[in-house]
Design brief:
The termini are far apart. By secondary structure, the chain is an alpha/beta fold. The chain contains 13 helices and twelve strands. It is globular and about 60 Å long. Helix content is about 40%, strand content about 15%. It has a seven-stranded mixed beta sheet with strand order 2-8-7-6-5-3-4, with helices on both faces. The protein has a three-stranded antiparallel beta sheet with strand order 9-12-11. It is an enzyme of class 2 (transferase). Its EC number is 2.6.1.-. Keywords: Aminotransferase, Pyridoxal phosphate, Transferase. It comes from Pseudonocardia kongjuensis.
């Protein structure tokens, strides 16, 4: 048989999944691994989806998404972050943020062009660059700096083939929130070298310290920036698969063109539910965010008392403790913790080389389970 696509063949399966395949065969596992809210989608949003089904909203929508939803997305960006986009020409509703990222990369990249990706980073960033024909270039960040992007290191990685910089803030897996001065410096760098910027802001509402800064609102950024967001995290709508991208018209139009031929549109019922989420679910979101913040403080305190050095995450719902004091590498630590104490975490190396010596723990689970997980981690460390 002729060989299959060499780019896809060369990319390994997600490193996260191996541990959950093991965990699925075990009893009494506390999972701190999956980046998914443990909250059910708020009732008012579910009810809007049910009502949409009852009224027969089971057809395609326009390719760009429901006009009302795009209007609400753009109004929200303007009111929260002073980031202004035309809902008719600069906003596209996507099937999750993942599709938005794929669209933007395919539109931006010609074969072999490079995308700089500060890491540790979300596991899909670098493979998605490769799938789009590009070459990902990782640039490390450090726990000692709060995983803030080293703009000088990013600039040192720029070559004649560099096309874009891809960041996530608040970040998966570290929970880091990029300071405004770092974002301004990145924009200045992009202007100097004529680069595009892609900003994954799916965790924007899950910012606990300070205020989220939308990259598209930074002076000088708008004409070269794609902002990605969605409803999976703050509104607990992972399975509804609704995201969006906001970008200058030339980029948004080409993203829409690819979207027309591949996904066609996001699910109609899900878009109706998302309209309700932006219109009437602010109180629900605020309550969930406040609960994540409580868990964050309790969980990080518990990890530190158990003997792990853990930076205070400013956003998202992940802690990224150092496990170097254990004397184990991240893979061994995660596998032994799962087998010996039935706690599932993710090795930091899954998210890039600078994740070595760390594990990712999601605190998007109930507080009693988090407290039990911390107790088990403490037991594990005491036996080493």
């Amino acid at each position: 048989m002729k060989p299959l696509n060499s780019t896809i063949t060369a990319i390994p399966p997600s490193g996260i999944r191996r541990f959950f395949d093991i965990a699925a065969e075990m009893d009494d596992v506390i999972s701190l691994g999956v980046g998914e809210p443990d909250f059910v989608t708020p009732w008012r949003i579910r009810e809007a989806g049910i009502y949409a089904l009852e009224r027969g909203y089971t057809t395609y929508t326009g390719n760009a998404g429901l006009p009302r939803l795009r209007e609400l997305i753009c109004a929200d960006l303007a009111s929260r972050y002073d980031a202004h986009y035309d809902p008719a020409t600069e906003c596209l509703v996507t099937t999750g943020v993942s599709e938005g990222l794929d669209l933007a990369l395919r539109v931006m990249l010609d074969p072999g062009e490079e995308v700089i990706v500060p890491e540790p980073c979300y596991v899909a960033y670098q493979p998605c660059v490769s799938f789009a024909g590009g070459t990902p270039v990782g640039v490390p960040t450090r726990a000692e700096d709060g995983f803030a992007i080293d703009v000088a290191a990013v600039e040192a990685a720029v070559t004649p083939r560099t096309k874009a910089i891809l960041i996530g803030s608040p970040a998966n897996p570290t929970g880091a929130v990029q300071p405004p001065e770092v974002l301004r410096a990145l924009v200045a760098l992009a202007e100097r070298h004529d680069l595009y910027l892609l900003s994954d802001e799916i965790y924007d509402r899950l910012t606990y310290e300070g205020v989220h800064s939308c990259l598209g609102a930074v002076p000088g950024a708008r004409d070269r920036t794609v902002v990605l967001g969605g409803f999976s995290k703050a509104q607990a709508m992972t399975g509804w698969r609704v995201g969006w991208l906001a970008a200058p018209r030339p980029i948004a139009e080409l993203c829409l063109r690819v979207h027309q031929y591949t996904m066609l549109c996001a699910p109609h019922v899900s878009q109706m539910a998302a309209v309700e989420a932006l219109s009437n679910a602010e109180r629900d979101v605020a309550e969930m965010v406040a609960d994540y913040d409580r868990r964050r403080r309790v969980f990080v305190k518990g990890l530190r008392e158990a003997g792990l050095d853990c930076p205070e995450p400013a956003g998202a719902f992940y802690a990224f403790p150092s496990i170097r004091s254990s004397g184990l590498d991240a893979e061994t630590f995660a596998e032994r913790l799962l087998r010996e104490e039935s706690v599932a975490v993710v090795p930091g190396t899954v998210f890039g080389p600078s994740g070595a010596g760390h594990v990712r723990c999601s605190y998007a689970t109930a507080l009693p389970q988090l407290e039990q997980a911390v107790e088990r981690i403490g037991n594990f460390l005491r036996r080493l």
